[in-house]
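From the thread on structure requests for the teaching lab: each student submitted one protein with a one-line request. Submission from student K.M.:

"Model ABC transporter ATP-binding protein from Psychrobacillus faecigallinarum, tokens only."
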Amino acid sequence: MVRLFTEDLSIVYGEKLIVKDLSVQIPDQKITTIIGPNGCGKSTLLKAITRIIPHHSGSIVLDGKTVSRENTKVLAKKMAILPQTPESASGLTVGELVSYGRFPYQNGFGRLSQKDYEVIDWALEVTGTINFKYLPVDSLSGGQRQRVWIAMALAQETEIIFLDEPTTYLDMAHQLEVLELLQKLNQQEKRTIVMVLHDLNQAARFADYIIALKGGQIVKAGDSNEVISKDVLRNVFQIDAEIGKDPRTNKPMCITYNLLKGEYKK
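Reply posted by the TA:
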């Protein structure tokens, strides 16, 4: 089932065409990961779909309606995004930050209802951050802060969550912690997760569907066995990779690689 898709989408930054005529479908209630080299349009695509930036041409459709014409609060009840570098939460407690996720549901007075408080506590419980509720966000570790930002996105009660490089700046243990949390939200809460990742092995391990971008266009889209392959990685990243199997998940795994140094061009 597909609720969200783009048709012939083009996105321009300044005078530069970043994404050109991109048609992509996001599987519902699955984890989709977007991979590709720096500057290929991964983050730009997420921002355009969530209407942070405008698109030049084409369309983005959610539940049969064009996203660009949708009411802002209605859209915020369907999609949440955690950007690559969240805004500073200086001076806020964890509970206060997570409460911002309830903005789409507040009336003109901006007061939190009993339902709002219940959802906030639920989001904190699910992300394992309830014990941090009254602590300053600035006092937490990187992994803890990332879980709190995810809690804020969860508090929006959206069925689709976008994350732009959610593991950036985290150590290996905290990366795994965040990705396992997202997997849990997908499997237990049926949330559709769309995220940008740089680590190919993490993408292969956690994604149901992978989109490989290069130059703003799709090189390959499919499951991990289709995308994490020698030929696709050669085309997208200009590397000669050795692909094996993860002994714990049986998913493909990039064991090692060399730069092609210009002998392969496409």
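TA comment: The CA atoms of residues 73 and 108 lie 12 Å apart. The chain has a mean pLDDT of 92.
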